[in-house]
Amino acid sequence: MSLQLYFAPGACSFVPHVLLEAAGAAFEPKLVKIHKGEQYSEEYKALNPKSQVPVLVTEGAVITQIVAITTFIAESFPAAKFLPSDPLQKARVLQTLAWMNNTVHPTFTHIFMPQKFTPDAAAQATIKAHNVQLFAEQLREINSLVAQAKATGGSYAAAAYGHDHLTALDAYVLTFNRWGSIAGIDPTQFTHSWAHIQTLAAHPAIAKVIERERLQLNLMG
Ligand SMILES: N[C@@H](CCC(=O)N[C@@H](CS)C(=O)NCC(=O)O)C(=O)O
Question: Among the atoms of ligand 1, which is closest to the Cα of residue 53?
Fold first, then answer.
């Protein structure tokens, strides 16, 4: 199966990037310099008219959206158990993944790119400050999820739902806390998430992705 992942360092594309590497998939990482606006080039828009990463191309078919991409990876590499087979456990993992993707991520977009929501500079500052508070609350909620997972004796976030395997949730935990540090929210205060992130960063596949993307986990440190 041919696979190409279009990613930007430190962006949400880290999530499928981790799953592909952890599955041992043979894939071609394709760097998109979003800080230079490459996502708005005609060539990239032909691939994804929404001008976003990640994009996964398989055998010429283009897949966008993290929920769809990670489900495709999970089903293409079932031995990795990126999704539970039990229907209720699977629903729980997907419900949290959907929340991370449709709520937590857009909260950060309001902090990082407030200009997307209003051209008014003063309104942008208000939007940003308000969303920093919301994002901190969401990081607290994620910390509770990790605490719940660890309380079961598990090693991964989905252990909270009875599925103790690496999933997209873990890669999002790392990404969101790293983003929090960009927004001035000290990630070390979320002690369960922060300890979990150190363990994740030592996982060989995740370490490889961190190195390829040249990521610093805490930008406040
Ligand atoms: N819901 C989308 C979110 C994708 C997204 O927001 N990607 C960001 C990076 S984290 C992006 O490409 N931003 C470029 C831009 O908005 O110009 C998904 O799940 O793939």
Answer: 12
